[in-house]
Amino acid sequence: MEAWSRNCFSSIRVLLLVALSVRLVLALGLQIYLDQTPDRSFLIAGDAAGYWELASNIAAGEPYEIYDPPRQILRMPGFPVVLTIPIKLFEGSFLAARIWLALFGVLAVYLCYRLALELADGKTAILAAWLVALHPVMAGFSVVILSETCFAASLLASLWSLQRIQAHPDSSLFPVMAGVLAAVATYMRPVWILFPLIWAVYQLFVQQRKTIVGRNLLLILIGMALTLSPWVYRNYQVSGQFVVTSLWSGPSLYDGFNPNATGASDMTFFETDNLPATMSEYEVDQEYRQRAWQFARKNPWRSFELAGLKAVRFWRPWPVAEEVSSPLIAWGIGGLNTILYLVVLLAIWRFRNRSDLLFYTLTPLIYFAVIHMLFVGSLRYRLPAEYPLLILAALFLSKSRNNREIDEQGAVRMNAK
């Protein structure tokens, strides 16, 4: 046991160093590429520029707002706070920021390993961590100034804490910790705020003591409320409204359901309408919510069609043209994802009786897919949920390899006889 622990630790150390090395090379390469491209600081400019400006405001002690008229509750502050560190310490160096984000990519590798340890075994955990460490899209996004990797790391931490509650249902510490970690993930992306409720519904089916599920959910919600309360209080101070997450869901919803919607994101209507010139940020959010639902009620078949188009964009193995510039890269990513999904489908069938394994590895992906049938679909929104999915793939590959080794050993013994 001690020898296995030493070997395991050594393997973890090696793979984390490899993961870091890969990401550092990508960070340097991406920065060199962007430096040689005139007037281009970000690979995906729109969202990245907004995050960078918000983080710069925090670092300079200026109000947390962007654009004119100012939008003060546009983005959750989790990722801008992460970016604040390299901006403040290294005077806005993009390369320093990418190196800093590479560390969060390595953290995601380790957290995937920890979750896999809870759901499977040491060999599977090591394999899952290697898959994450060397996955080209996950490694590449680790150094892009976008929130996907930080959200993936916080998502994995949240799933790990929820699984610990299932393993220790009578503990009071784990539910509160799970609430705190769920709130941290919500600070990265507001979509995660509902996931503890989905977990509680699942627990009602697997936990014989229903009252303990209610108690644990209450403790989770307390942990979330305490962690999110500074943001909620700040939002009330600047808007006079009780806003738990952000005020961008209304425009995002209308982006998905409007007369010109295609399933892809096209926010040109926001600039054309220019509602912020005459409305508060809260009123703009409410107005676009109403427009989106009104369109859906009046055009049910078109709305259904749009939901399907968004689902196709979400599940499509290869990125679309606006997401990558090279067809070769697109087909490479598509081929890799196709293989991954084939392995996952085989794993779902093989481990169909492992409800815990399937819940923690599949549910985030399905949850995001349903959510983005309302908003817009893209590979980017799928990526954070693919981290736990690799655990399922790793377990299938690990067990398949063990079965082959057993068969080979059996064949050798038979031949010897």
Search tags:
417 residues, mainly alpha, 75% helix, globular, disordered C terminus, LipidA_mod_glycosyltrf_83, cell membrane
Written overview of the protein:
- This protein has helices at 2-35, 45-59, 78-89, 94-119, 122-134, 136-141, 148-167, 173-188, 195-206, 210-239, 249-256, 268-273, 281-298, 300-315, 327-350, 355-371, 379-416.
- It folds into three domains: 11-146, no CATH class; 148-246, no CATH class; 299-417, no CATH class.
- The protein has 17 helices and no strands.
- With 417 residues, it is mainly alpha-helical.
- 75% of the residues lie in helices and 0% in strands.
- One of its GO terms (biological process) is lipopolysaccharide biosynthetic process.
Describe the structure concisely for a colleague.
The chain contains 17 helices and no strands.
Topology of helices and strands:
Blueprint: H1 2-35, H2 45-59, H3 78-89, H4 94-119, H5 122-134, H6 136-141, H7 148-167, H8 173-188, H9 195-206, H10 210-239, H11 249-256, H12 268-273, H13 281-298, H14 300-315, H15 327-350, H16 355-371, H17 379-416
Keywords: Cell membrane, Glycosyltransferase, Membrane, Transferase, Transmembrane, Transmembrane helix
Subcellular location: Cell membrane
Main location: membrane
